[in-house]
Specification:
- It is a single chain.
- The chain is an alpha+beta fold.
- The chain has one domain (about 20-90).
- About 20% of the residues lie in helices and about 25% in strands.
- It has helices at about 20-30, 65-70, and strands at about 35-40, 45-50, 55, 75-80, 85-90.
- The protein has a five-stranded antiparallel β-sheet, with helices on one face.
- A hairpin with a 6-residue loop joins strand 4 (about 75-80) and strand 5.
- The longest helix is centred in the N-terminal third of the chain and has 11 residues, at about 20-30.
- It is elongated and about 65 Å long.
Length: about 100
């Protein structure tokens, strides 16, 4: 009786398929040299480019956008030197 070959491929979850345009834009910035900074409550988001410290305040990003990306596991908190500031970074996603 021949044995069946099992597929070695793991199911690839597609968390990026149902993101809004704002969430996709924010992730793009995080993957291209920016870090997201918010206050301790998650509001007042600012994108900071790590190479030259340039800041960009995205108009359409708010606390719920940050919370949604964190709940999906697309961004994680990083350590911050300022006590009331939260730094967010993109997680490595296999596409």
């Amino acid at each position: 009786m021949p044995t069946k070959k099992r597929s070695l491929k793991k199911p690839n979850p597609k968390p990026l398929a149902n993101l809004t345009e704002t969430e996709q834009d924010l992730l793009w910035h995080l993957e291209h040299g920016y870090q997201l900074e918010t206050d301790s409550l998650g509001s007042d988001p600012v994108l900071r480019r790590l190479t030259d410290n340039e800041t960009v305040r995205p108009a359409s990003v708010n606390r719920t956008t940050v919370e949604a990306l964190a709940e999906r596991g697309l961004i994680t908190q990083a350590k911050s030197r300022v006590p009331l500031k939260v730094v967010w970074r993109a997680r490595a996603i296999s596409r």
